[in-house]
Design a protein that fits this description.
- The complex is a heterodimer of chains A (417) and B (182).
- Chain A has 417 residues and is α/β, with parallel strands linked by helices.
- Chain A is built from 14 helices and 15 strands.
- In chain A, the strands form three sheets. A seven-stranded mixed β-sheet of chain A has the order 3-2-4-5-7-6-12, sandwiched between helices.
- Chain B starts with a strand and ends with a strand.
- Chain B has one domain: Pyruvate-ferredoxin Oxidoreductase, domain 3.
- The chains are: A alpha/beta (417), B alpha/beta (182).
- At the A-B interface, strand 1, strand 8 and helix 10 of A face helix 1, strand 2, helix 5 and helix 6 of B.
- Strand 8 of chain A pairs antiparallel with strand 2 of chain B.
Chain lengths: 417, 182
């Protein structure tokens, strides 16, 4: 039987039905990294399998270092990045925290590493299940964090991550996050761009000044003991670069649209927000389900909208205030916990903008942790509860949507665990 | 949109079945999205997969609780409550079974397809991995797809002799599935 050609699109790309993990691997391949170092872990393993195959088949001309553990993976790509190379790695959960010290060091050294983290619950309670707790456990490392909703966005964000990390004015490592299981193993149609278009998109970096390189024989201190003023200067510059990365990400989104025809809105995506009274704030794969429910609610006359967080670090404060100010009520959906606070992490952070939001009421929804499914019924419940809040009804501040046994975490309960 | 739930065991190709069908739908200009749900990957453990097939882009990334169609690759699960859970009125079931008669019942089940996919797979590929036979049988029973895009989709998962043998599997599934309207 004669194989048929793949479906061609207008842009000349190919539509392939692939998983989120395959999309990440293809994105990495298209970026032409010099060095890939990685160690497999569920639900990320397929990325490493695919990259190994690309490498073995001669489709990927990189140094592939199959390290003995994640800590070495991050140290290897950090070193290669400091030497001027383009690098890639991927991990998840236990692997991510096993490289934690190297994650911090990579950020401190301002090494523009690009990595993928497939979100999964962290060690603590042993669980092979989806959840963004691993993202939260590394959020203060000084990296830029991006979050994808579907397989197409996984591929596109990997490409955009290189433009952001390696930009001469940024030079901060970037981690692309997407939900384990619900997205890592989801097969759907993805526009796989042509190599020449990706080369063109990334070629902007070639025209920028050469970043400082740590090379054998060269005399250069890097990541050394900054104390007092030196430390403060490095940290201040790092924080400033993170602030600059917000506008840079918006620019990159526009340029990406010019070449590939897809635009996501930059730091945040607004879905049916213009005339919305109530808004859910979410991130990752849940956003597709939320959009579908919002469409149903709109038909029933409920003015609901979604604000999807695409850039989580730096926190897109200004963009969120501009989009949310004046809304009657906001429900924040967290797929993780913020130990020490009752509400979820994103809720807790958004609360810091309460004054700028000018009177919008806020509530926290915890759902989707430990693989619990953020169902359409759950989303409907969240929208209804947020509508109740907007209508001035008495609504509890924090709801564990898939665990109705949970009242608001209660300080008065005594005894045992 | 048609929502399909697949039931089987690790090693039977449940996940690949759902992937191939999503692939086949994409080749017709429609949209397919499928994903499995399991913890640790291991042979023999029950595996569930979910498929959404539509003429519009599929946005939902949630499991399927009210399927239009259920596909059962592991005959030992054919009468389990989990298999029939939430089946919508007018529902269909495709069952991999050596026993070619109606021995399942559910008030919402309107169409049943039975195919001895293991036997065909052993004859054609020498392994009792029923998935590609199921793909062809699904196309016939559901009426949602023709057999050609299914065979085309197999190119993304097999090559050489294995591809040819699996195309035969899919075609035999399409031709040999026994359909019962209840």
């Amino acid at each position: 039987m004669k194989p048929k050609a793949d479906v061609k699109t207008k842009a000349g790309s190919q539509i392939k039905v692939i998983t989120g993990n395959a999309a990440a691997a293809i994105g990495a391949k298209l970026a032409r990294p010099d060095v890939v170092a990685a160690y497999p872990i569920t639900p990320q393993t397929e990325i490493i399998e695919q990259i190994s195959k690309f490498h073995a088949d001669g489709e990927m001309d990189c140094e592939l270092i199959t390290v003995e553990g994640e800590n070495s993976a991050m140290n290897a790509v950090m070193a290669a990045s400091l030497a001027g190379g383009r690098v890639f790695t991927a991990s998840s959960s236990w692997g991510l925290v096993f490289m934690y010290d190297a994650i911090l060091a990579t950020a401190g050294a301002r090494a523009p590493v690009v990595m993928v983290n497939v979100n999964r619950e962290t060690p603590g309670i042993i669980a092979v299940s989806s959840g963004q707790q691993d993202m939260i456990s590394t959020r203060d490392a000084g990296w830029i964090f991006l979050i994808a909703e579907d397989c197409q966005e996984v591929l596109d964000l990997v490409l955009q991550a290189y433009r952001l990390a390696e930009d001469y004015d940024i030079q901060v490592p970037v981690m692309v996050h997407y939900d384990g299981f619900y997205l890592s193993y989801l097969s759907e149609g993805v526009n796989v761009p042509l190599q020449e278009d990706v080369d063109r998109f990334l070629s902007v970096l070639n025209d920028q000044p050469q970043r400082t390189r740590l090379l054998p024989g060269g005399k250069l201190g890097c990541g050394t003991h900054g104390i007092l003023g030196g430390y403060l200067e490095l940290r201040y510059k790092h924080v400033s670069a993170l602030e600059r990365s917000k506008a840079k990400f918006e620019e990159i989104d526009k340029e990406f649209h010019q070449i590939f025809g897809r635009s996501y809105g930059g730091q945040i995506e607004e879905y049916r927000m213009d005339d919305a009274d109530v808004v859910l704030v979410g991130s990752g794969s849940m956003c597709g389900t939320i959009k579908a429910v919002i469409d149903e609610k709109r038909e029933a006359g409920v003015k609901a909208g979604l604000l999807k967080i695409r850039m989580y670090r730096p926190f897109p404060s200004e963009a969120m205030v501009a989009a949310l100010a004046g809304k009657k009520a906001i429900g924040v959906v967290d797929r993780s916990l913020c130990f020490g606070f009752k509400g979820g992490p994103i809720y807790t952070e958004l609360k810091s903008l309460e004054i700028q939001l000018g009177g919008s009421k806020m509530i926290s929804f915890i759902d989707g942790i430990a693989n619990t499914d953020i169902t359409k019924a759950n989303v409907e419940q969240m929208i209804d509860t947020t509508c109740d809040l907007a209508a001035g009804k008495d609504v509890r501040e924090v709801t564990w949507v898939s665990y109705p046994e949970a009242r608001e975490p209660d300080s008065e309960k005594t005894g045992g665990l | 949109m048609s929502e399909v739930r697949f039931h089987g065991r690790g090693g039977q190709g449940v996940v690949t079945t759902s992937k191939i069908l999503a692939n086949a739908f994409a080749r017709t200009g429609q949209f397919g999205a499928s994903f499995p749900m399991f913890g640790f990957e291991r042979r023999g453990a029950p595996v569930t997969a979910f498929g959404r097939f539509s003429d519009k882009a599929v946005r939902e990334k949630t499991q399927i609780y009210n399927p239009d169609i259920i596909v059962v690759l592991d005959p030992s699960q054919r009468n389990s409550d989990a298999v029939f859970q939430g089946l919508l009125p007018g529902g269909m079931m495709l069952l991999n079974d050596s026993d070619n008669k109606i021995n399942v019942s559910h008030e919402n089940l309107k169409r049943l397809g039975i195919i001895d996919a293991n036997k065909i797979a052993v004859e054609e590929i020498g392994l009792s991995i029923p998935n590609t036979v199921i793909v062809g049988a699904f196309a016939k029973m559901s009426g949602l797809l023709d057999i050609e895009p299914c065979c085309d989709a197999l190119q993304d998962y097999f090559s050489g002799k294995k591809l040819l043998a699996n195309i035969v599997c899919a075609k035999r599934g399409f031709e040999e599935v026994a359909l019962f309207d209840l």
